Amino acid sequence: MRELPGIILVICVFAAVCSAFAPYNSPIIDGVIGSDWQGDENILSDPPDDSPWGGNELRELWLTWDADNLYIGVEFSVAGNGIAIYIDADDGGTVSFRGEDGWEGAWRRDVTSDRGIDLFLGGWDGSALSVYTAGETNSTDISGFCETATGAGYEAEAKIPWNQIYPSGMPVGAELAVAVLLVGGDDYFAADAMPDQPTVGDGAGPDNLENFQIVSVDSDSDGVPDFEGTYVAGAVVFSDVDSPPFPVATLTPSVGPVVQSSPDDGSWELFGYAVGDTIGQIVVEAPGYHGGYLDDIPVTDPPNESLEITLEPFTGAIRGRIIPAAECSLKAVFTQSADSGVYTMTTFSDGDGNFVISRLASTYWNVTAYPFSPDYSATTVESILVAESDTTEIEIFLQAASILREWRDAVGDDYGPGSYTYPTEPVFVDGAFDIIGVRIKDYEEAGEIEFEIEMGNLPPAEVVNWAPYFPPLNLQKIDIYIDTHGGGSSQGLPNRAANFVPTDYWDFAISADGWWVGMFASNGQSIFDGYTRNVTDVAMTADTSANTISIRVAKSAFRDHLGYANWDEFHTWDFIVLSLGHDGDGVEGVRWVNAGSASQWQFGGGAEGDIDPNIIDMTVSAGIDPGTGEPREPADPQEVQLDWTITTPVKLAAHR
Questions:
Q1: From CA 567, how far away is CA 508, in angstroms rounded?
Q2: Is it true that the peptide bond before 245 is cis, omega within 30 degrees of 0?
């Protein structure tokens, strides 16, 4: 580590007083750490050859901020591993990411900390960083509020809003304590660290974070991120709104960071200017309003705080009806107008399908309806012409979700190879693990597919009712393995005690329970650490009245080391769907199948030892043979495939 000019940084294991580092910079989040970062924002450097894992190294850490966001950049190299950035930003947080210490959140690793970590970022094998806040034992994914990108040169960038780090406002005297690790997969330890850590690199865990890079964000204790120079301030007035919450305007100065006005009173501030400067222009824009400009603003001492601009609303509107009548959210989008910028307007339809979208500019609009009902797909009406002070009438005919594939499974075969029995605890109701059928739906407009899995009996999570319970699933774990192309993984997910035949090595796997839902890309590897994990593009719901579990996945999530999956070849894909018992205290959340009779909480009828699959029911669907264009030969029945006395571990297949 070297000390960089212009910023005093202290590596410490205790609270430290650090510099008045006041960068006030807004780098572009594009996965390239270039000239948009300033030299003194490179706050840490790590030796290029101190990692015992070849091809895996941490190199540089960058950090800066503006009025609204914290920016983090990391330069590294990685091969089948990940990087994790740990930040102590405030009181609270966690001191352990170890499952055995009770950590149930994301990025479970063999890592502890001397400081409470309340913000962390993780990226696997060069993927874009995910961002989380941390409590004592769990995490919250805030990636949707952030911008992240990782480039081909292994340069990762993240933009995190201050209001996500400090929801109640920045505390006076705020400082950040930052540490970076290069880590293995779940429950694994680290190989490299910035700054160096005494236990990292010794080939064993746990790895403890003792040393942190401390950066003072509010060294002058005014509750505002530090900045050099002075500021200008004012308010945006909306002529048709006289009480909060006010619309939010975006202010873009010719020089300096972009800021937004407050929904409480329309106020805004622009920091980081020198007395005597002149801001050539500030562009003021808000969705639904004509844009405005403030020109030639002098920067003075005392600060100019009385800048005010009034925005007038657009007066066009679209009134419409959803057919068939359904509750929807609606979004109107345009890309051409005399006023600069692109904006969207959103609203909701009522129970009769009626809606009005107001404050629209005179131009062409595309309106998309997003139905709340799972039976319909998002539907778009394009090129709707709206004139000033006029209302255009439209009708939106919802598109029913198309069925890509559907198949049924035998009723009452929730017995594994034929011998498994349910736990004796009454919450394990008959049919709770019995897959009856699978339907794969295509939501073309939304760019999503949905796996609708019908169960024999799906009790509400609140009826299952042990503490804690996590709706919508408290008993079940559902796995879906998908073979889309050659190669793939021969191994099932951990603690399933099942592998796959070579013709059905899986490329993508989805796993869902009440605690966790996510997707894996095998990247042609058969080791868990080589998989890419995605938890942001997968969502699950359940309908206990219809006994269905619905798992919706963005089509764009089907991406691995070969690129995006080819949906034109969907008819050739193989699917293997498994039903298992979920156990929050079990290894990888799996409920065991034991030998002999079932106990209160464990399935019975299994083997002596851990050679029997922990799979209660399975159903498969084979794609068309791409060589012959004919259906493939059916696979062996479940009773054969799950019989550990034939093959150990068992090998699953969708076809022969």
A1: 14
A2: yes
Spatial distance between the Cα atoms of 490 and 521, rounded to a whole number of angstroms: 13
- The answer for residues whose C-beta is within 8 angstroms of residue 79's C-beta and 6 or more apart is 53, 54, 55, 56, 125
Over the stretch 440-491, which tens digit does the pLDDT of each residue have?
999 887 789 999 999 999 987 656 655 444 567 888 999 999 999 999 999 9
Please answer whether residues 157 and 148 qualify as being in contact, where contact means their C-beta atoms are separated by less than 8 angstroms.
yes
* Phi and psi, residue 436, nearest 5°: -100, -35
Structure pTM? 0.52
CA dist list (Å): 161 to 23, 105, 351:
16, 21, 36
Instruction: Give the Å distances, CA to CA, from 170 to 89, 136, 163, 248, 587.
Output: 10, 21, 8, 20, 40
Q: What's the fold here for domain 230-311?
A: Immunoglobulin-like (2.60.40)
Task: Judge: domain 403-652, CATH 3.30.1360.120.
Answer: no
Topology classification of domain 10-216: Immunoglobulin-like (2.60.40)
Question: Per-residue b/e over 11-32, b at no fewer than 16 CB within 10 Å?
Answer: beeeebebeebbbbbbbebebb
- Tens digit of each residue's pLDDT (9 = 90 or more) over 380-428: 898 999 999 999 999 999 988 889 999 999 999 999 999 999 999 888 9
| Region class of 40: left (phi > 0), else alpha (psi between -120 and 50), else beta | alpha
Tokens of 191: 């190989």
Question: In 585-653, where do the E strands start and end?
Answer: 593-595, 603-606, 617-621, 650-652
* Cα-to-chain-centroid distance, residue 5: 37
Instruction: Report which secondary-structure segment, H or E, holds 455.
Output: strand 448-455
- In the chain, where are the structural domains located? 10-216, 230-311, 316-400, 403-652
Per CATH, which fold does 316-400 belong to?
Immunoglobulin-like (2.60.40)
In this chain, the answer to whether the domains covering 10-216 and 316-400 adopt an identical fold is: yes
Tokens 């193989």 sit on residue: 574
CA proximity to 634, closest of 648, 616, 654: 654
